[in-house]
Amino acid sequence: MKILHLDSSVLNDNSITRQLTRALVDGLQAQHGSTSVIYHDLASNEIPHLSGEILGAAFTPESDWSELQRSERARSEQLIGEFLGSEILVIGAPMYNFSIPSQLKAWIDRVAVAGRTFKYTETGPVGLAGGKTVYVVSARGGVYSNEQGQAMDFQEDYLKTALGFLGISDVRFIRAEAVNMGDDARSNALSAAKEAITQTTSYATIHSAPC
């Protein structure tokens, strides 16, 4: 069992998603037994956003690549390999300005590659990275799960759409919502998220046991 663990909050030890993804990964490791974890702190070790020069490597003979193109192609290949080789993804994704951190978007841009993780066909695009389970640990300062809030949600919906485009249909959200709406709301949100993690890892125990 291989787990790919991504954190993207810029708040370091003050981050809610970091606290929760750590607990989730620990629980999954305990329940699945033999596992390996690849971890990326996308905020502390940012993946450079795509540029014209980086993308230009796809249209330039390798012998003419710049040093930047060589190093970034190697980085992209590593990230794609990690993504395709994992059975479980745990993604810490706080909501920033109704969407995801740009650091997480930079990772998505590196692994969403035609011919590798999806392909175009006569009937439309087809994802090539299926068969995985993705746990998205989502934190929001306000409430976006109600009808009014959903109209401003470009965080969870975007991740579900992007991952679905790559062929991943099993995307599960563990949410801490309203964390900036007072101490009580924050405490309740954290308790609910931690309980969801406990239930998730207990579920994994039941369904991963040999028949």
From TrEMBL:
Enzyme class: oxidoreductase
Residues spanning the signal sequence: none
EC code: 1.6.5.-, 1.7.1.17
HAMAP family: Azoreductase_type1
Keyword Cytoplasm among UniProt keywords: no
A Pfam family annotated for this UniProt entry: Flavodoxin_2
Reactions the enzyme catalyzes: N,N-dimethyl-1,4-phenylenediamine + anthranilate + 2 NAD(+) = 2-(4-dimethylaminophenyl)diazenylbenzoate + 2 NADH + 2 H(+); 2 a quinone + NADH + H(+) = 2 a 1,4-benzosemiquinone + NAD(+)
Native source organism of the sequence: Vogesella fluminis
Family: Belongs to the azoreductase type 1 family.
Keyword Flavoprotein (UniProt): yes
Binding, FMN: S9, M95, Y96, N97, F98
Protein name: FMN dependent NADH:quinone oxidoreductase
Gene assigned in the entry: azoR
Cofactor binding, note field: Binds 1 FMN per subunit.
Self-association and partners: Homodimer.
Role description: Quinone reductase that provides resistance to thiol-specific stress caused by electrophilic quinones.
Xref: InterPro entries: Flavodoxin_fold, Flavoprotein-like_sf, FMN-dep_NADH:Q_OxRdtase_AzoR1, NADH:quinone_OxRdtase_FMN_depd
